[in-house]
């Protein structure tokens, strides 16, 4: 790492820490995640060169995955039998979000059909941007609207959960702290599995690698215990910071122009996710607040981090978000073909 990159990284992390502290002081939900996201986004848009190195980012993803896996219990495994029903409802909500948001962007903001479709797609940003380039869509506009959506969902979803008045249950049982030896053994194996997933082009590979290894270790009793709080908090702060750095390189005027479209698509996504969560909860008996978090189309790593922070069924949330990406991989080309027809 160059001296400039190191300086930018330290400044970025400091801004994130200040944001976390301020949001904690005012009592904002999931402050260690939402505070850095808001503060670093604002700093980036004001011209501060922000940076979170790729290796640190990957380490954060791994920690989040291991933390999610540590919440897997026999009770969680038992509830997984009802997940196919909620996954089917999730697919319906994805279609509804795209249809409604696309119509809103065309009629309310004058977007062409293809750009509106790609802006309305709820997630899978790298895949969507690749398609945008190939289809001659307005790539900067798609990138901006999608980035604004991720930021707004990161800030809005914890608030919605808090307003719902539901507390998580993931940490009600005291399992004690994981031993240093078990922790040291978990991460190299998780990294190796994550690397294999990366080679196989699996979505959220490092998160899933950490989750799989940790879940097996905790489920079999080989690596029992909770992940240290300091490690979780550090990962959440870096995750929020990473969201803010995504605005680097964007013209602030373009961001403001895309803000309205981002707000509208976020409202639509939250409304549809809430309806889907209530329906799926009625059909399966799963917690509605956890399903809201599972259905809200934010980033996989971000929504999983919020699930851990709030204690709302992290394994369920992560599984649904990975499935969302896989479903979009199939759905988006079909929707593009329909627009072209």
Automatic annotation (TrEMBL):
<dbReference type="InterPro" id="IPR017516">
    <property type="entry name" value="AbrB_dup"/>
</dbReference>
<feature type="transmembrane region" description="Helical">
    <location>
        <begin position="33"/>
        <end position="52"/>
    </location>
</feature>
<feature type="transmembrane region" description="Helical">
    <location>
        <begin position="59"/>
        <end position="77"/>
    </location>
</feature>
<protein>
    <recommendedName>
        <fullName>Ammonia monooxygenase</fullName>
    </recommendedName>
</protein>
<feature type="transmembrane region" description="Helical">
    <location>
        <begin position="150"/>
        <end position="166"/>
    </location>
</feature>
<dbReference type="Pfam" id="PF05145">
    <property type="entry name" value="AbrB"/>
</dbReference>
<dbReference type="GO" id="GO:0016020">
    <property type="term" value="C:membrane"/>
</dbReference>
<feature type="transmembrane region" description="Helical">
    <location>
        <begin position="315"/>
        <end position="336"/>
    </location>
</feature>
<feature type="transmembrane region" description="Helical">
    <location>
        <begin position="254"/>
        <end position="280"/>
    </location>
</feature>
<keyword id="KW-0472">Membrane</keyword>
<feature type="transmembrane region" description="Helical">
    <location>
        <begin position="205"/>
        <end position="223"/>
    </location>
</feature>
<feature type="transmembrane region" description="Helical">
    <location>
        <begin position="83"/>
        <end position="106"/>
    </location>
</feature>
<feature type="transmembrane region" description="Helical">
    <location>
        <begin position="9"/>
        <end position="27"/>
    </location>
</feature>
<feature type="transmembrane region" description="Helical">
    <location>
        <begin position="286"/>
        <end position="308"/>
    </location>
</feature>
<keyword id="KW-0812">Transmembrane</keyword>
<feature type="transmembrane region" description="Helical">
    <location>
        <begin position="178"/>
        <end position="198"/>
    </location>
</feature>
<dbReference type="InterPro" id="IPR007820">
    <property type="entry name" value="AbrB_fam"/>
</dbReference>
<keyword id="KW-1133">Transmembrane helix</keyword>
<dbReference type="GO" id="GO:0010468">
    <property type="term" value="P:regulation of gene expression"/>
</dbReference>
């Amino acid at each position: 790492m160059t001296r400039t990159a190191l300086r930018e990284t330290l400044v970025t992390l400091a801004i994130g820490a200040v944001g976390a502290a301020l949001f904690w002081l005012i009592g904002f939900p999931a402050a260690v995640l939402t505070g850095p996201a808001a503060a670093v986004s604002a700093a980036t848009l004001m011209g501060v060169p922000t940076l979170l190195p790729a290796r640190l980012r990957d380490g954060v993803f791994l920690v989040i995955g291991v933390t999610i896996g540590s919440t897997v219990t026999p009770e969680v495994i038992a509830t997984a039998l009802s997940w196919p029903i909620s996954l089917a409802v999730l697919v319906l909500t994805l279609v509804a979000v795209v249809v409604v948001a696309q119509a809103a962007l065309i009629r309310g903001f004058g977007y062409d059909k293809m750009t509106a479709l790609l802006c309305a797609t709820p997630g899978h940003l790298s895949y969507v941007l690749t398609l945008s380039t190939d289809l001659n869509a307005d790539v900067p506009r798609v990138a901006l609207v999608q980035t604004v959506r991720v930021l707004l969902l990161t800030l809005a979803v914890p608030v919605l959960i808090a307003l719902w008045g539901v507390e998580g249950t993931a940490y009600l049982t005291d399992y004690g702290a994981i031993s240093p030896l078990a922790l040291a053994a978990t991460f190299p194996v998780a990294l190796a599995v994550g690397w294999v997933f990366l080679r196989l082009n699996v979505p959220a590979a490092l998160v899933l690698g950490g989750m799989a290894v940790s879940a097996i270790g905790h489920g079999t009793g080989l690596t029992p215990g909770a992940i240290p709080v300091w490690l979780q908090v550090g990962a959440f702060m870096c995750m929020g910071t990473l969201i803010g750095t995504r605005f680097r390189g964007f013209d602030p005027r373009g961001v403001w122009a895309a803000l309205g479209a981002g707000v509208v698509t976020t409202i639509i996504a939250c409304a549809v996710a809430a309806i889907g969560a209530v329906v799926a909860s009625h059909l399966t008996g799963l917690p509605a607040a956890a399903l809201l978090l599972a259905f809200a189309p934010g980033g996989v790593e971000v929504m999983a981090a919020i699930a851990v922070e709030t204690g709302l069924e992290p394994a369920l949330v992560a599984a649904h978000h990975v499935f969302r990406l896989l479903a979009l991989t199939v759905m988006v080309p079909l929707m593009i073909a329909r627009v072209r027809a």
